[in-house]
Amino acid sequence: MVDRGASALSLPDDWPAHPDPILALNRMGSFDWDLDTGLFHMDAQAHEVFDLRPDEYDGHPETLAIRVPAPEGYRLDALVSQAMKDGSENYGTYFRIRCRDGSLRWTHTQGYIRRDETGRPRRIVGIVRDATQELDDLAARREQASQDAARQEQTNVVQLTTAALAYARSVDDVIEVLKDTHGLTHLGATSLVMGLVEAGRIRLIAEGPAGSFVPGTDVTGIDEQYPMSEVVRTLTPRFIESPEEFAESYPLLWPHITGLNITAAAYLPLIAQARPIGAMGLLYSDRSGFSPEDRNVLVALGSSIAQSLQRAMFYEQEKDLASGLQQAMLPRTIPSVRGADVAVRYRAGSAAGSLGRDIGGDWYDLIPLPGGRVGAVIGDVQGHDTHAAAVMGQLRIVLRAYAAEGHTPATVMARASVFLHELDTDRFATCLYAEADLATGVVQVVRAGHIDPLVRQADGSCRRVPVEGGLPLGLSAEFGSLEYPVATIELDPGNTLLLCTDGLVEQPGADLDDGMQTLTALIGSGPADVRDLADKLIDVAEERGGDDDVALLLLRRRGLDAPQSGGRLQQHVAPGDPEALSEARHMIRAAVRAWGSGDRADEIELVADEMITNALMHTEGSAIVTLRVLAGSERRLRVEVEDSSSALPRRREAGESGVSGRGLLLVDLLTDVWGVEARGGGKCVWCEFVVPGRA
Q1: Phi, psi (rounded to 5 degrees) for 660
Q2: Which residues pair with 362 in a beta bridge?
């Protein structure tokens, strides 16, 4: 309360004989203290400040002791003595006086020290004034500033909490935000409870701190005598300002929480779209009431929490619906395949900023086919929403149907593209279809805008298999290009075929080739078991996160213990398509070797090539070549070439310079038996070769 830095008074030498009238107007009294005589002269206004009558003061400072308490007098004497000793020109301080009625009043004095030419203090002149109002105003300003700071802190907490709640995507996220040590605890709450309205009851979803749970309150009726029930019924906040009020209002609850030392509580209804969805309680152990500003802040907080809770509940409901739809569209079970180990996995993406959109059009499928074959499908419909999932479900079904009907892989893909185009949707899809003969290891692959497959060798090495592809499904029909080249892969025993969607490959900031290299290395270092490998790949995708879905299918060919009958491969060869003819030759050569008949591979390939060429040259349509193994008393390999012409082939002799006429002669010479069968509007030329069984 010392004011040592006050400016020096500019007073005339004969002051206070002629005091400045301004002092009187400002209710300031003046004094003149002669240090030589010890007389302390005060004017009339100074008498009023000290609450003294003229007859009660004799001009000596000691007389002021009747108004200045001893501790204050000692402090004033020390202050003045120090100022005179250290050469100060002035001093100033606040001190208290005891008024006539016994009350204490704050007073302020300011003195100016006059010295002679030697520096010796000779005289002190100054003023005194009543400082009660000044200090009251200062205290009020400080109190107001403190309240404003506390209110601003509470407002900041509400704003920060509201900002954090904007990112909450589940009810658990909302609870975590509210329990965060940087959140509601800054409002002074020592305990938090929250419940949601469900079927006429309130289900407790959060309580804290640990040990504060009240048995029997996990589910309560809205009509029961509990504070959360009351605010849900009335839609009005309930502010409890004392333990006595709590005990009287809620006798069922109070005995169970007395150990928490609760002194006040605020219960808020959580209202969204004009209906209560829950209630929240904040319990305090260090306050006794709530100002209007406190109540407004808490009501605003309750409104923000209610909106966030409703968003979270809508999100969880839509996510459950989307997840259910996704699971319904994907195969419920994957059939066991003789001669292969299969693993499939699906991971939903995390599309940030969209409620209930953690679902997409990625899918996988495994289709058992006649003759020990199996069809493996991986695909991705454009988009991340329920519409994409619905389109995916329809597309998966038609692909399975076309494959089960016995169509070639290229036909399956072309028909699926037409189907998607005719759905009249704005979505397209990428897809890869692989038809594998597990007896031979021959895999025919067709790609529609999808990423290439990968093959892991038995020794753990992994490679990407480039496959020429066509347009994505739905676009090929739109642009009139339904050609899908067929590639052939040889899958040896112990090798694994891996099909996946681009969510497993693509990484932010990296191109597709880099992603494929990373995936190839990851597969090469992964476990040998397909299920363990699939788990590892999905775990990596989960750690990496990302907005895109991941679908994954792994098919590992096991070694066969004995020769298998019924192996069957089929290839469609269009007129004027040398690549298709080359693929057919490749398929035949690979199958013959895989079936253990390599010693007759050249003969079989030559005969099949002649039969296909005849069909293409002498008919107007395509040829379908089928290769299969027949079981019986002796093992036979049968080649069939089917075309749309009913005209039967004729055997004829070729001239010395003729370039044709030798086809059937070769067939007759190199095969063990051959023939022709009518097939509807066309025919099938077939031949068989006796082949040894596999060792």
Answers
A1: -140, 170
A2: 380
